[in-house]
Amino acid sequence: MSSSEQTEQFFRGAFAQYQGVTEAHAAIVVVANGHSIWADVT
Predict the structure, then answer these.
(1) Which end of the chain has a smaller Cβ tally under 10 Å, C or N?
(2) What is the per-residue pLDDT across 1-42, written as a single tens digit (0 to 9) for each?
(3) Which of 39, 10, 14, 16 is CA-nearest to residue 27?
(4) CA-CA distance, 41 to 28, in Å (whole number)?
(5) Maximum CA pair distance of the chain?
(6) Which among 21, 19, 24, 22 is positioned nearest to 41, based on CA atoms?
(7) Domains in the chain, number
(8) Domain that holds residue 27
């Protein structure tokens, strides 16, 4: 995301797909390589 407006639009559009969800479990995998850190959140 390159701007706060773009981030807001993304999340505003994504909320509908979670309608009716009452329970969730997070799985986070973090990979660090030198100065870069990536996180896969599912």
Answers:
(1) C
(2) 578 899 888 888 888 888 899 998 989 898 888 888 888 887
(3) 39
(4) 5
(5) 41
(6) 24
(7) 1
(8) 4-41
